[in-house]
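Bumping with the actual sequence this time:
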Amino acid sequence: MSLVNISGVAKSHGAQFLFSDVSLQVSAGRRVAIVGANGTGKTTLLEIITGEQQADAGAVARGKDVVIGYLRQEVAELRGHTVLAEVLAGAGTISGIGRRLTHIELELAEASEESELSELMDEYGRLQHRFEQLGGWSIEAEARRILAGLGFAEGDAERDIGEYSGGWMMRVALARLLLANPDVLLLDEPSNHLDLASVEWLQNFLADYAGAVILVSHDRDFINVVANRIAELRDGTLTEYVGDYADFVDQRETRIAERERQARVQGREIVRIERFIERFRYKKNKAKQAQSKIKYLERMERVEVPGSRTKSIRFRFPQPPRSGRTVISLSGVTKRYGEHTVYDGLSLALERGQKIALIGPNGAGKSTLLKILAGALEFEGGSRELGHNVRVAYFAQHQIEALNPANTVLEELETAAPRLSSAEQRRLLGAFLFSGDDIRKPVDVLSGGEQTRLALAKLLADPANLLCLDEPTNHLDIASRDILEDALNEFGGTLVLITHDRYLIRTVADTIIEVSGGTATLYPGDFESYAESRGIDIERPGATEGVATPRGVVPPAPRRESGSEAAARKRSEAEARNRRHAASREVQATAERVEADLAATAAELAELTERLGDPASYQDPALIRDLVERHNRALDRSVTLEAERERFARELDPAETPS
């Protein structure tokens, strides 16, 4: 059954034409990734689906009672209530019923008249039955599970949402939307504010989503796992392909090759007809035939070849000055935020030419480490020493915010690259996809992706030899990411990079630093080498959950070993098992008691729920009040026991994992 049906939709913004004759059918289980360059109208199409924008032509048919949920690229700032309360608000009907049940309980305690008690008890019974049908008793546990998947630590759910940054507020908005479980889920760049572990969790959540998903994303790995359809917006048209992103690339190339062949055949036919017309249009015995062929050409539908193979614009970036072998060293660095210690005695040395990706769970200190390396953040103890002839450049969101909105694109670049000739400046802007009249656009009319490209172009126009980049691919489309990838691969200095784009990590990084638990562990080699050393199957969807997540790291894969090595390993494993077993006996015993208490509480809840669902119970006001109080106490106890069970499970998991 079609949930949303888009037919013949067209849209322009003023003089800017976006697309026309766009058609797309969305049904349950269909997960469509809309791809295309920045400015082609992807976000506009999402807003037309929601009804926030009206199409100039065509129609959007939404199924009866179909619920559409939409995550925008930016969310309004929120404050005044807890993270959990905001997420639970997404449950809509369930949250509303839960609040009303709580109010009725208070009213029951204060009611004195029999008629009032009877009316309240009738309403309470109806609402509780509905609450149970909708899964209301488990909704808070599901909200906490989603928050944990998106990187929130235990206890964060009770914090005021106003304490969080914009990126974390975006995660709260995403959690609220996922809990709401709409029929059609619209996501605009959902991975922009997530770390690797959270991206992995989200992509696996969406891959199993029962409803329909329409997402705009430029993360190829993310699209590959989530999408089973690709819809490309290009040259004002939408073309749909079946499969993931890799299938789309293959199918598009095949389609383009076929269209090019058809265009060549048609071109030869047009030339032949034009020659006939030119030769015979003024001859009496052939003039009528020539006029017929002129009309035939006028009616002919010309084969359009998609501007598929984007011209590869290359630019040789100025190479940075050569530094000493040791580019930067940290020794015994201590960094605190108030009472929270991020690093205590951290030491690290980076060498000339390394291209390093910092990976690890959100909140582990990746951005803090990058800022310390860049000299953009003070620390409380230890030392930071730059090597010989080292110049540092740091890219983060504030570089984009620092662009002068009154300047044109070209004027803004000139401020960073005065030594480049005008032709070199234009070639550099062309390499970052600014061409023609684009270079005369004021900065304040640029999209987020265009501003990011301009800030990166400024950074690389006069490059330092230690380049620190924090999420440089945010808001960049795939073509722009390819440009950045080429630039970073050609860069001759030392690079330290934080990104959630695993494709960029794989293609650029030759060294991985795993940041976790106040440490920074360096792994020489690319991402595949790191994954192999950590026993992570990066070809398996969801595999990089083992990359320094808060829930532990997947153990190293065994290598081939000799007989003596195998015997020594088995002895070591046996000794380790004995130590773990002794250490975990007490935890195991406590966990078993919690499990028994949880089972007893579940049975009690089932009995109380059954009694509350019995209309006869509502004949006695004192009984119903007692049942409600006991049910609430049992529910609170169940939530506490669930949290304890999860905590013990985390404590026991490492002890049961083979080393």
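The tokens above came from a reply further down the thread. The two ends are 50 Å apart (CA to CA).
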